[in-house]
Each structure stands twice: as structure tokens, then as C-alpha cells.
């Protein structure tokens, strides 16, 4: 600081002779009229802001030295002004005090070097002067020019275009200069009389290229551009910020006019087309130019140097409340805590917005202040008073979201002193990764040491969560040396120690946290384990590959190379390879890799790998977001290579879907990926991810679930609930152990069970790992606590977090800081009081008093800080959502019945609240008011509401609800459009507006007006086997007079059992009751009856409610079933007949009678189907049931033509209107072609319906003819699985056939031992002629939890086969089946309940049939059909071939049918090793003995000699020999 006396020194010098003086002429005084403003506009042509009007006088004392001052400055806030158009009216401006002191400007030519300003000037005054001076800065010298631009400027013509780095108040950034002559007429707004040789200079700043950018930001999503223009594919424009300056100058150096305008465009809610607009303008117009007249500005003041025009930031002024922080925070807590006792008013009371204010109050507290706050509040922590204890919770969560170093240290002290521990401490520390605002090396080190400290590592839950938090936090910074030298080595050592100690849980944790770092050097840590140098389980190796996801997301080329190497190594377990495939698509594989992966989809030996690659390429090619442009393009380039084979959902897949339309539209990206399991329908690894946001930013909510062996886990859980029966004696004729010993079949070693669940949600991470020991420990603790089940368990859980928190500030042209804030405060509040009472025989009840609340705000605001008045001038939007569930429930359960009772509260309750509140505001920075509470806030309304409704409903059931809806948003012009898409998109469109406008929706429960406050839902189910035929004829629908439970159920059963022999009846009885002063009851009772030996299917339904009864009966005669021969199935005239009779009340019956057929056209298509031709070829070789024939049999049993007639006597007008309205609604939902012909009619009381399905083209044509005419609905879209679902092929149900289609025929896979071919469960087809030797078809000893199975087969004579089956269940039941061409014999210790037609043995422990079997005619021979263990295994035997269907015994079975692991290559494994020859493979499962076939024995011996053992060869991880290491070092 020094003192300067400002004097005038008249120096006469020509600016032409002294070019370095341009544009300031020594000895001249320039006076400018100044108009400067900054304003915010949103959804309107007017907005709020401030205006400065002054005169700016500049004297040039000597070359490079200017002195300036403001004269008569006036300033004020200006509301409802047109800032964009620079039109103002009714301004109320006041003088600005103490700013008219002179100050000095040092320049080099037109470039400002530094300032000298009075020390009394605040940063507000300093920044204003910088803004004014910046507008007059014009530097035509080549100083600081940008090299990579074709710069040019010619002094003679005074024209040019060049770029240079230039510093002004907004930043030291790349600036484009355009210098050109100005056309005539372009000087109308210049105030001086004459301008010699006018030139226009335009300056445009590029904020994407700055050497010194002023500002502060936090929480900006990766890829969101706010400081430049988004050019890259993975970037999207978040904030558009430009500054442009237009100057009119004379060639000799006079600046006649300058206009600098900063423009900022941003949506307050981050996404959407509607932008808040912030304009900051500095305009100077020369009013006089004359020689300096007065000798000096006579004032001597104290000055300080300012060495740059860069904006001077004082961040504490943005939010700081000074010394009042503690008092403010305490006041807010006292306001907020009581609100949690009145959930209905949370949205109105702005609870979550107040939570944001509380965080701001805490943000600028010192460590001492936070400690003082904690001391004053922690007393409430243990209080029995809920309101007081809630105060601690709110304070705790606010501190956790504060993100300052002081807050972090306070949380550390809480954990170390055990103020918080366990899950509570884990939830608090988990937030640190996302909220800590200053990722410095010192803070990283402190956090890391804290995470690794014994005090933390000894605490369950806290240890793992802290490690996740610190590694995620470290990954967000840029401290590469610290990560390499300290973090990775320490974590690597801990992983090594855990592996050596056999601590599987800890090993999983360190694998995950290393992956969290997303650093390439973690590959070196994982290398010895992936390369097999350090032995670990396959499961842990899979976890290592999976943990590379975050690094893959960064498109790192090293991880891409590692993943590709793992994928290509066919000697790796398929799970490891699939895990690599899932991640490699996130890493943007180049075209060369994609080409190879395309080839692998049909050439790779692993079905799972082929499936994941084919599915991933298909989905990736469909991505639309530009962020995925490279991936989508390379995927599309190989689409033509993919095989036609359909890989269903049983196989591994990577489903990537987005619904991107434009950057301004809200869209989402979702990923569902999994690694298919060898032995269970459920995968061994599943990953789900969801990203919301118009930009496709990389932040996402995601989870993973991993299990080492899914079948092991499911059987283990199953065993906890199913009583293990007494182990039966092994009295079978052929014993499994003997078979296993003969063939030397040894069960695979079963690894210990381990798994993990990972969740990345709400800016927090959670990891739960488990082994079988943890599961056992949990069960023991539950057993120990079972005595307390009858005691009431109370809980009060509250969690408040910021799902997102974004803050950005940077300076504008006038010297005011732009400020953007966006947060998503979210509340989860669960009050629970539960009591459980277990009973006998799987009965009991649970009573629960529940208060569940989920609330979240989308709270965004954009504007600027008026530093003269400490007022935030802004526009914002608050989107609120609250879901509140307040009721008492009781759940009663028995073997066949469960009942749910819901009791509504005695007070009114707002169940759902959703509102959108756009506004403008003038908010004091030290205010504790939310925007809604501020009287200066103004709601943005439009002239006309789009929707306005207030309705009450539920009167008919005595429980009254009120729906209120008011909105100005065009989103709701057509409410049905909100439900046009998939569920996820529909929910998104409902909750996140495209057109942001004032909106409020409420769904309320009205207790005072409700007569009935209890809701009961009861379901009774039962299955009756071998139901006796009750009637000889199927009767029309009739009223059921006695509707008591037993009577109506009996009547319904009688109706469906008529005309059916040995029927199986499935009964469902549903009662819905609204109980109270005016009880209302609804009853729905239905039954379905069918039989294996009867072609009839019958159903009956009764509905009773609103004093009306509706009855319906249905009868269908199924077509003849041809189980094994496609050729015979086509010859069979496939016809179904159906009758439907409906009785509404006591009116006349409505009757529908119709038929369904397979048309000749469809039959011809089946014959010409390539699969049909392949099937006929197989049949010609006497193989009736290979894959092609199986598919064609399903299709051949599907009718494609249907015709029916609906007859009625008196259809009410309301019913006719309902039908017409239904047709109109369906027409809106479907894309079809409609034709009408009013001349084609039928008699009144009749409606003819025809439907022709075109299964091969996926559409259906309908024709409806009534008394009004004929309506044709053509080209109604169908789905590919329709023929499978419509098929009448047994022994699979329609549901099973459809699921088989979706899962690539792996939901219920089949195996066929055909004449000379075998089709395995996994899909291998190989040639083999079974001989007279007994062959093992399937064998599974099932040691622990499974059911023991043995199936043997032999063919002693050509065309004659024999089958022997034994089966033991875990409940102690045994089954032995002996099948020969002439006889069959069934022996079991289960209860036999039927002998005639369908024989059934019943497992009275598991409450299911152990075996059901029957005979059907199939061609010339009788066919036996068996269903074992309630359909778990199904057999079809025609005395020659054997067909098996089962989803059990996955990967544990051995034999001719393979291992059923979904991997075809597993079906080359014999008891002796791998063999490639089909004949050797089949003979390997032949048994020695009296009937052994000599040729088979020779083949068996040959198989022993030629078999080789599979070898796992681990993948080399970025390893090179000496020669290639040298090349690699030279390359990088």
C-alpha cells in the first residue's frame, strides 16, 4: 500500500507518430455516458435486476498512464424491466456513495496492465470499475496471440481477424478480434458529431480456453459443460455463457462507443428448453473529447495496487451469515423439527428448502462453532421425546451434507468418540465422497488415514463404507502421485493379507474399493490374481473384472486391452469372460475389436459369451444419445455378422437402452446386465443402472448383486423353510452310488458360498458381503430372537440427503457474480411399530402400524448476486414430490389362505403431493426465508390453466379420496399421452415436466367423510386332484344363491368339474371388503379344471358386488395332441371349440360360441418354414424330436383362425356405448387400419367375431359384424411369441412355452434320446445309436439339498427301448419307474390317490404330487407321459425314444443329456475327460454288465484312451517379453 498524488501532465504527442499510445491520446480527456445493468429473466420479456448510470471520465496523463473517475453515479434495483431489449422505465436510482474518487489505469497501448485504486474501495466497487475498464480495453498488438489460428491484421487498412489471450473482469481467456470498417448509417447511436474513418471491433470470449478462469464450482456432473461450448461426444451443454464486446473506434485512436454484454442461459432444473436468462451489460458512449482543462483532480488518497482486471472473489459474501451462523442454525432446527410430526404440511412448510438453508448456515461455521452446535444438540439424541431426538437427526444429516473441512472433522470426532456408530455412522460417512468440496491432497490423506485407522476398521458397517467413501473421494481429485505412492500400495497390501488369511469378506471389500479408484495402476494390483500366480477363488477373480467398470467408463485404453484379452481367452471360465464383455462396451471398443467380437458371436465355444456379445452389440447399435455415438457406430458396423440364433434371457446379456431425443429433453439411460448361471434361472451376477438427465451424464444410480453359486444359495434358503424328511433306505433295484462308482463320476467340488450386494444411490455407496458363515450366524441370531417376536418392535428412521448438489459462480461483464444452485434434498421417514405372532402349520400373523414418507425437491435457481445490496436476484423452479402412506396393517396367513387388513387413520392425510413452482425473487443473502416465504418472490403464472379439477371419489366403497389438479403446463393437455410409453418413461414424464409451469397435484384421504376406514383383501387358493365328475352336461351360467365361502366355492367347483374325467381343479377365491359404518364387500370366485386324459378345459367365475352378481362359465374342447411327430401333427385336423356363457344379474344370458382352427395357409407356411424342412429331414432319418421338430410341434399346435358368434337378447345402450368407447380407446393405443361397411349387418342380438392371425408376419386381422355394420381392424400388431403361447402342445403350459421363447428355450429345457441322435439340455446335437447296454441318461446324487435322480435307458432291440428311473426327494419320498415297450411299473412310498386314467402319488410333506402319469395315443403306438415332483421333471416315452423336460439338476447332472449348464461345450465332458467324438461321448456313459454291448464296450475303452482333461489357462495382464517391453516403453 502506498500514497499517490494524481496530477495532470500535459504532453502533446501524435497517436499516429506514437503508435504504442493507441487508442489513448496523451493530454486528452474522454467523457463517457455509462449505462450498465445486470438482470435476470425467465418465462417473460421482463425481469429483475439493477441499473447503474454515471459519467466515466478518463484523462491521459502520459503514454501508458491514465487517470479516471466516476461522476454522478446513481444505482438501484429495477424490477419488471426489459433487460434483453435494454428498455427501462420508471427507474428509481440513488447516488452511490464514496465511489467518485479518481483512480489510475496503467496500459500498454490498449491493453490494461494494472490499476491503482483507493484503499477504501470495497471488492464491490473494485469489480465494478474492472467491468467498466474491461469494456474500454482494446489491444490490436500481437502480444499474447494464439498460435493455432490464422491471425492477420493490417494497420494500413485497419482490418484483421486474430485471436489472443486477453484478461478482463470475466477471465484471462482466448478472445477473438474482428476489426473491419463500419458501413454508412451504422453510427446513428454514436453521440459525437464526427467520426473519422470509423472502425468496428468485435471481441468474443471463449471460456472454454482460459489460462486463468475466475469462479468456483462444485458438484458439476462429469461431461456437463458450463465454461465453454460442448464439442465432444461425451459432453453436453449445461450452461451457455458468452461475452461479446462491440467497439466503434477511429483509426487514430478514439473509442467512441463500447458495449460489452455477458449472456448466460441455463435451466434452473438443469434439463429442459426453458432457460433462465441473465444479461450483464456495460455500455459507454463518448459524450465529449477535449484537451485536459483543469490542472488536477485535487485529492490525495491512499491507494493500493490491483495487478489484474480479473474479478476479485469474496466467496463468504455469497452465503455467509457472519457471526449469526449458530443462532440461525438453531432457529432453523427449531422450525424444522416439529414439522416432522405433521407430515401432511411438509411441502407447504418448505421443510426440504429449509434443510438447504440449514446446510448453508453450517457451511461457514468453524470447527469450534460446529463443536458448540453439537454440544447444544446431542442431549436430544437419546431423548425419549420423538421431537427432540428428531432434532439431532436433522442436524446430523445437515452436517453430513455440508461438505466443509470443519464438518468432516466434526463427523470424524463423532465416529471416534462413538457418538454415532454402526449403520448410523456408515450412512453419515458415506456422504463424504460426494459432498466434500475441496479435494486437496491434505484432506485426501487425512480421510484415508482415518479410513485405515484401527478405530474405524474395528467397527462393522463403518469400516467398509468409509473405505468406499474415501476411495470415491480420492478418485474425484487429481492427485496421481498420492494415489500411486500411498493409496494403491496400502490397499494392495491389505488385499494380499486378506487373501492369505482366507478372509473372503475383506478380500471382496478391497477389490471393490480398488475399483472405486478408477486408476490404471489397479490393473497391476489385480494382475497376479488374474494371472493365477496367487490362487484365489473364481468368484473373487470375477469380482476383480467387475470392479473395473468405473475405470472402463473413463474409456481407459489399458483397461480396454485387459478386458479384451480376458474376453478372448477361451480357456478362462465363461463367467470371467462375460464380466469382461459387460465392461468392455463401456470402454468404447474400437472398430477392430468390435469386428472380432462380431465374429465371436457365432464362432466362440461358449454359448454364454456368444449370447452376451450378440445381445450387447444389438443393444449398443440402438443407442441414440450422441454420448454413445462412437459405440453405436462401431456396433452397427458388425450387425450383419450376428447370427440369426436367438439368445434368450436365460443367457448372459448387456441390455443398454436410452430414449434420447435432444439435449433439451429429459431422457434416461438404463442398463440391465447379468452373467447367466449354470445351475439356476437367476444369474450369478446382475447389474442395473439408471441415469436421468437430458445430457446423459455419467452420474448414475446402480447396483450389483453377485453370488458364487446361485443354486447353492437358493437351495440353502429353501432348506430353511421346507422340512427335511426322514432319509429313505436305498431299496432300489439299481442304486445311484453303484452307477457313480462304475462310471467313476465324481461330483464337482462345491466352493464355499460367498456373495455381495453393492448399491450406488443418492450419492452414497454401500457394500454388503457375505459367506455361508454369515448366513448361518444370521439364522442363529434370528432363532435366538424368536422368543421376542410377540413383543412390539418400534422404529423411527429418518434420513435426509442431497441426491445432487451443484453450485457454480463466475463473474459477469458488470462485475457482478453469476450464481447457479441446484439441489435435490430428499427425505425418507419411516415410523414403524410391528408385532409378529407365529402359529402352527405355516400360519401366523403380523401387525404393523406404519407411517412411510418419501419427499424430494428439485430445487434450482439461477441469477446473480447484487453485491451493492447483498441481494440474490434470481429465477428458480422448485419441483416437489411427496408420497405419504399412513395406515395400520395386519397380515394373517395359513396354508391355503392369506388376509391383508389395512386400516386408514382417523385424520385426513395427503397421500401424494406433486407441485412445480417457477418464480423470480430478490433474496437477501443473510435471509432465513425460503423463496416461497419471501414476499419479494413472484410466482410465474400464465394466462390460462391447462388443467383444473377437484373431484372426490370412493363414495361407492365408503372410503373417500380427493384429487385436486391445477396446472399451466402443456404436458397435461392430453393426460393419456403420459402413459404412452414404458413404465419407467411414463413415471419420468409424470414427475419431471417438459414444459415447466405452475402446477399442483394432491391426492388426499378424507377421514372425516369416510364411513369405512378398513380395507380387507383375502385370497383363498386350493388345488384338488382327481376331482370326480359332478355333472353329465356343462350348464349355462346361473345365479349362485348361497354366497357364503364354503357354499360358493363348492358350487364353482361343481360347475367346472362337470363332463371332465379325473379333473384337476384350481380354485381362487378373492374377497375385498371395505369395513366400517357402511360395509361394502366384493367377491370374486373362480376355478379352472382340466385333465391329462380329457380334452375338455372348463372354467367358472362369479363376481358379487354392488348388489349385483355376474356369473360366467367357459368350456373348451382342446384339439387332439400329437406329442412327438410333426408330420402327424400337420395331418391332424387341429380344431378347438369353445363356449362362453355370461349372466349379469337376473337378465338374459350372453353366449359366445366359437371355433379355432389351423388354416391351410398356415399349414403351408409351416411346411415351407426352414425349420419345418429341417424337421421333415430329421423325421426321414427317424429322429422325431430334435430342436427344429420341437419348435415346429409347438407351432403346429397353434390355431391361427378363430370365429365366434356372440348372442344376446337385450344389450343396454350403456353397454353398447361402453363397447364403442373401448374400441376407440384401443384404436388410440394401437396402430391399425380400420375399415367400416354399414351395409354388412347381422340380426339384432348377434355379434360375429372373426380373427385371422399371421404369425409369420406378426399381425392379426379382426372382423366384427353387428346390427350397425361391419368393422375390420387390419394389421393389428402381434408379437413373435404368440404362436408359442397360443399353442395347445403338452406337457408344457402356455406360460411355460412363452417363457421358453423369451429365455432361448432354457426356462424348461429339453433333452431327447432319439433314434440315432441325442439333443442335450444345453443345446448340443450329436449322433449316437443307443445299444443294448444300459446308458446313463441323467444322474444326480444331490448330496445336500437337492433331489436325487437316476435315469437309465437301453435299446435291446431295434425300435424297442427300456427306461429305468429312480427319484428321491428332500422330503424323504421315493419313486421307482420301470418302462418297457409292453409294460410300465411305478413303485413309491408316497400316498397313491388315483389309479384310473391318471395315476397320482402325493407328497404329503411338500403338499405336491410326487408323480402323475397317464397314457395317450400318438400315431400308432401308445405314449407314456410322466410328471415328477409337480412337473419339475416331465417325460414322454413312445417305447423307442425318450424326451425329458426339466429345469432342475442344473450343471449337477451327468449322462447322455449333458450337464444342463447352458454351455454346449460342457456336454463334451465324460467321466474320463473331454472327448470330441459323439460316439465316444455316448459310449462313455454305458454301464458294464450282463447285457453290455461289445461294440459299445470297445468305444468306451477308446474314449478312456482319447479323453483329455480341461485346463484353465489364465490371462496375461499387459505382460510383454523383453523385446515388446522395449517397444512399449518407446510408445508411451
Summarize the structure.
With 1532 residues, this protein is an alpha+beta fold. The chain contains 37 helices and 62 strands.
Descriptive account of the structure:
It is a single chain. The protein is globular, with a radius of gyration of 40 Å. Helix 19 packs parallel to helix 21 (607-621) and helix 21 packs across helix 22. Among the domains are: 20-307, Lipovitellin, beta-sheet shell regions, chain A (Lipovitellin-phosvitin complex, beta-sheet shell regions, Roll), CATH 2.30.230; 827-1012, no CATH class; 1159-1287, no CATH class; 1290-1506, no CATH class. The protein is α+β, with helices and mostly antiparallel strands. The protein starts with a strand and ends with a helix. The strands form 7 sheets. The chain has a 23-stranded antiparallel beta sheet that branches. It has a 15-stranded antiparallel beta sheet that branches.
Rg, Å, rounded: 40 Å
Annotation, overall tally of beta strands: 62
Q: Average pLDDT across residues? A: 88
CATH architecture of one domain: Roll
Oligomeric description of these chains? single chain
Shape: globular
Weakly predicted, low-confidence segments:
1-19
Helix content: 25-40%
- Report the biggest beta sheet as strand number plus sense, adding barrel if it closes: 23 strands, antiparallel
Instruction: Give the distance, in angstroms, between the N- and C-terminal Cα atoms.
Output: 51 Å
Give the count of helical stretches: 37
- The fourth-level CATH homologous superfamily of one domain is Lipovitellin, beta-sheet shell regions, chain A
- Secondary structure class reads alpha+beta
Kindly estimate the percentage of residues that lie in beta strands according to DSSP. 35-45%
Annotated CATH topology of one domain: Lipovitellin-phosvitin complex, beta-sheet shell regions
Q: Report the CATH C-level class of one domain.
A: Mainly Beta
Keywords: Disulfide bond, Glycoprotein, Signal, Storage protein
Protein name: Vitellogenin domain-containing protein
Pfam family, one: Vit_open_b-sht
Organism: Helicoverpa armigera (Cotton bollworm)
